[in-house]
Write a structure and sequence with these properties.
Residues 327-428 form the Cytochrome c domain. Keywords: Electron transport, Heme, Iron, Metal-binding, Repeat, Signal, Transport, WD repeat. By secondary structure, the chain is mostly beta strands. The chain is 10% helix and 36% strand.
Length: 430
């Protein structure tokens, strides 16, 4: 994938804003799972990032989208508010974009990571930005002079990063089962082995470190790394974590769509919020310490009263509309279901992380206008036909289309591949 600085114009038009108006106090505007949520210090503005490659700046007072930020060529996995009104977004393209409100292009693009960036953290004095990546590194970037420190040590992808409130250390967690506490401005880290892969980390105002793991447990430790407790919050991996500004509550979102509200001092689950039934990818508290925001796989951001467990503004959350409901009973549609998180079948739907498949057959690879393809795909001569799509899933995207951002997947059955291509022929030609 090209990492050259390429700026895109923000598509902020009336037609785009229309579907962004809320329904029952839900912020609905993304065309894919909401992977990241950040709240401004004053609690008035929300920044969200999605698998649809876009970030949205929302007014929480009016519950409307004020700006859609389009720059990244892959999913936007992380978002943060910086000092003086600036914002940062980072994603699967390994780049960090620095934005100012109302500006259609990033002020700055920070490069250096060679894998997807999945988490950002800002120091308490707003002078440094840390990024965690699946290239096994953490990078600390100075927001004043642009200097960068690269932290090596993790043997697998780094999933989370957080600054200590006193600015004396940085904590990173990874799939390699380690917590690493890095002294600042430099020095060797303290490394703590954990019993399960770690997906997220947060630090309370008093410096306690909280990690969320693939075994559904929160684990607490002192600023120095001594373990002080654990809480079982879910039967599935924890993938989102937030602490209220007063340090009283922890919110932990899981892959099964539940969110546990934990009393941090008591080390106990107060209640579990039942989300839309699909993964909760992001959580964030408002400054009041009682209102929780969650970002789900249905592309919606919801408000909750964390103290009572009530959904704010709606008695019934409902479930997301099934984009394949019209094809009930179609075997090919069921095979395609694994693809709907990234691809639409119609040009009228909001763009997701991958290009629309409308008019797929007969189209040359990487030729769809308006979508950023990697240079590797642009150099290929493949034309999409039932035969080439079948081949793609027979041998896998990595072998058939090297350089693709598409997740590796195979369809071993020739009959299933035929059912899929027959379905695509019907569904994408309308």
């Amino acid at each position: 994938m090209s990492r050259r600085l390429r700026l895109a114009t923000v598509l902020l038009t009336a037609s785009l804003l229309l579907p962004l108006r809320p329904t029952q106090a839900q912020l609905a505007g993304h065309g894919g799972p909401v992977r990241a949520i950040a709240v401004s210090v004053d609690g008035k503005t929300l920044l969200s990032g999605s698998f649809d490659t876009a970030a949205i700046r929302w007014s929480l007072a009016t519950e409307t989208a004020e700006q859609v930020l389009r720059f990244h060529s892959g999913a936007v996995n992380a978002a943060a508010f910086l000092g003086d009104g600036r914002m940062a977004t980072a994603g699967a393209d390994g780049q960090i974009a620095i934005w100012r409100p109302g500006q259609p292009q990033p002020d700055q693009v920070v490069e250096g990571h060679t894998g997807p960036i999945v988490a950002l953290a800002v120091s308490s004095d707003r002078s440094k930005l840390a990024s965690a990546s699946w290239d096994n590194t953490v990078r600390i970037s100075s927001l004043s002079d642009g200097g960068t420190r690269v932290l090596h040590g993790h043997s697998q992808g780094v999933n989370g990063v957080a600054f200590a409130p006193d600015g004396q250390s940085l904590v990173s967690v990874g799939y390699d089962l380690t917590v690493r506490i890095w002294p600042l401005p430099d020095g060797s880290p303290e490394t703590i082995m954990m019993p399960a892969p770690l997906n997220v980390v947060a630090i309370s105002p008093d410096g306690e470190i909280i990690t969320g793991a693939a075994d559904g447990k929160l684990r607490m430790m002192t600023a120095g790394g001594r373990q002080t407790g654990e809480v079982v919050v879910a039967a599935k991996p924890i993938v989102a974590l937030a602490i209220s500004q007063d340090g009283v509550l922890i919110a932990a979102g899981a892959i099964d769509g539940t969110v546990a509200i934990v009393d941090r001092k008591a080390r106990s689950v107060m209640r579990t919020l039942a989300g839309p039934g699909a993964p909760i990818w992001s959580v964030a508290f408002l400054p009041d310490g009682a209102t929780l925001l969650t970002g789900g796989s249905d592309g919606k951001i919801r408000r909750w009263n964390a103290l009572t467990g009530a959904a704010v503004g709606s008695n019934v959350l409902g479930t997301p509309a099934d984009p394949l409901a019209a094809y009930a009973g179609d075997h090919g549609a069921e095979i395609f279901r694994a693809c709907v998180a990234c691809h639409t079948l119609s040009e009228t739907e909001v763009q997701r992380a991958g290009p629309t498949l409308a008019g797929l057959f007969g189209r040359k690879i990487a030729s769809l206008p308006g979508y950023r393809f990697s240079d590797a795909l642009k150099a290929m001569d493949i034309v999409w036909t039932p035969e080439t799509v079948s081949k793609l899933f027979e041998i896998g995207p990595n072998a058939y289309t090297p350089g693709t951002k598409m997740p590796e997947q195979h369809i071993g059955s020739a009959a299933d591949r035929r059912a899929l291509t027959d379905f695509l022929a019907r569904a994408t030609s309308k």
